[in-house]
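User: structure tokens for this one?
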Amino acid sequence: MVVEHAMLIIKEELVEEFIQTINEAFPILSSSEGYLSHKLLRNKENPTHFILVVNWNSLEDHIDGFVRSAKFKKWDSMLRYFFDSFAKILHYTELKYD
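Assistant:
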């Protein structure tokens, strides 16, 4: 499993509209091949800052299956307007330990 961590900074005057729109866009994400689950977190100190956490089967599912798809173009067209800066996307895997 790969965890996508997207730091989203939203234009202050558009935060409430963003929350409504991303909720409308989540079915696009959740219908993608390799998608497992997601959650959206809002920062308490900076309410224009959000973290979108998405669990994917693999990095390829996210990059090749979603980002390079028509679904992503729709997702991006719905959400890009709200961003104050480009989203910072990082991918993580869980470490195994004893």
